[in-house]
Specification:
Blueprint: H1 11-25, E1 31-37, H2 44-64, H3 66-76, H4 86-107, H5 111-116, H6 120-138, E2 148-154, E3 159-164, H7 166-171, H8 178-189, H9 193-211, E4 226-228
Parallel strand pairs: 1-2, 1-4
Antiparallel strand pairs: 2-3
Helix pairs in contact: 1-9, 2-4, 8-9
Length: about 230
């Protein structure tokens, strides 16, 4: 039995973005590709990093208050005094640190927590890297005039990227796309990703029409539809 694909946006969003791309390309020789994904990275290394940090913090606390923690151990074993040997101390310490590490790592398996504890600049860099990879595969140098541009949205990070082909990047600086990006992220945060992408496409189309107006021969070389991955 075939597995049902989970959609990140609604069918109405698909239609809205596809129509916006078709309308924008009606006035420009530029080609706009739109891609939406739920998450750009699993951030597994972030979970490992937090588990390691917590374990070392726990070690520091134990080193600062050894008598307190050994008192807890004695009470756990019924309050009987015990002459702990160095090897036993080390075994207890490693069990304690291992438990802290494992417990934190298991907590970090929960993606909302992992995303919350991932620094913003890390998420930005990973989304940017994913957008560039997808651009190289599906958009870069895929048009005769090298006028392809990718609009990429990663929903759970609330991050988006615009990556342009050689001819566009040579005339349009990255800052020019700022209005389109702001419009997109504002709508995504309001749980309206389709409206956000459509508005971003509209604003991108205005910029492209100014620098790359539609010519007499302008084949549609890249897909207009919204792509989900």
């Amino acid at each position: 039995m075939a597995l049902r694909k989970i959609s990140h946006v609604s069918e109405a969003d698909h239609q809205l973005v596809t129509a916006a791309v078709a309308e924008a390309e009606h006035h420009t020789s530029g080609e706009i590709v739109t891609i939406v994904t739920d998450l750009s990275d699993d951030y597994g290394d972030i979970g490992l990093a937090w588990a390691t940090v917590i374990a070392f913090l726990a070690l520091s606390v134990v080193a600062f208050m050894p008598d307190f923690y050994m008192g807890l151990v004695d009470r756990f074993f019924g309050g009987w005094g015990h002459e702990w040997k160095p090897g036993e101390y080390l075994a207890l310490l490693f069990l304690f640190l291992g438990g802290k590490w494992l417990g934190t790592w298991l907590l970090m398996k929960w993606m909302p927590l992992r995303l919350f504890l991932t620094p913003k600049h890390v998420k930005q860099n990973r989304v940017r890297a994913r957008a560039i990879d997808l651009f190289k595969v599906g958009t870069e140098s895929k048009t005769v005039g090298r006028t392809g541009v990718l609009l990429y949205l990663s929903l759970r990070e609330h991050q988006a990227e615009i990556v342009a082909d050689e001819a566009i990047a040579g005339k349009v600086s990255a800052e020019v796309w700022g209005d389109a990006m702001l419009a997109l992220i504002r709508e995504v945060r309001a749980a309206r990703p389709g409206e956000g992408m459509a508005e971003a496409v509209r604003r991108m189309g205005i910029v492209l029409a100014e620098h790359f107006p539609k010519g007499s021969e302008n084949p549609n070389e890249l897909p207009d539809r919204l792509i989900e991955i």
